[in-house]
Amino acid sequence: MILKFFVGGNWKMNGDKKSLGELIQTMNAGKVDPNVEVVCGAPSIYLDFARSKLDAKFGVAAQNCYKVAKGAFTGEISPAMIKDCGVNWVILGHSERRHVFGESDELIGQKTAHALENGLGVIACIGEKLDEREGGITEKVVFAQTKVIADNVKDWSKVVLAYEPVWAIGTGKTATPQQAQEVHEKLREWLKTNVSEAVANSVRIIYGGSVTGGTCKELASQKDVDGFLVGGASLKPEFIDIINAKA
Q1: What confidence category does residue 174 fall into, taking pLDDT thresholds of 50, 70 and 90?
Q2: Is the pTM of this model over 0.70?
Q3: 127 — alpha (psi -120 to 50), left (phi > 0) or beta?
Q4: pLDDT higher for 159 or 170?
Q5: Inter-residue contact 123 to 85 (CB < 8 Å)
Q6: Are 244 and 27 in contact (CB under 8 A)?
Q7: Domain limits of the chain?
Q8: Among 42, 133, 178, 206, which residue has the least CB neighbours within 10 Å?
Q9: Could you tell me the fold of the domain covering 5-244?
């Protein structure tokens, strides 16, 4: 089954109206492969700005949300608020949320369930740290993270699974295309065994971790790599090249 290639740009805590406005102009004017689904993860304070300026062919994602619709949760945003800004996606479980802000698997699972119940698409992130890879427990870690997400998903059509080896995020180290393919293939096998064959064949598993214009083509050629979640390079004009990696 040929899955629609998915490229997410995670702007993280970067940019201002001037620089993001320029990036958006570049994207709107760029020639992009129409067979690729593109979603830009904007800081929450710029969600409205990004959605109003970006061409309708591009999606927008929040970078996080909370597990309930409203209430006394200072500093948090809810799926309902995200939807109210015309935004249809959220990134959940990013390694920076897990390891810098201490979010647990359980909390990420609860957020996933609530976001999906409220009609958001979820880019759910999983991935091992360097000591876990060196210790030979990559599969154990990513399967455990995936299980908590899977336990909270009823409709997989709204979920994209992002494998991001933590040791390759922002470090300039990229997993080799073979390393990425190996984990993606094992994740698909896990989904087949633990969810269903139909889900395993239809869910997009994308790769993140220092994806650049230089590394994207070979990564994109791997059988089980269905797209990318791009960090730093999504703020640069080369993001267009990454979107067109399959073209």
Answers
A1: confident
A2: yes
A3: left
A4: 159
A5: no
A6: no
A7: 5-244
A8: 178
A9: TIM Barrel (3.20.20)
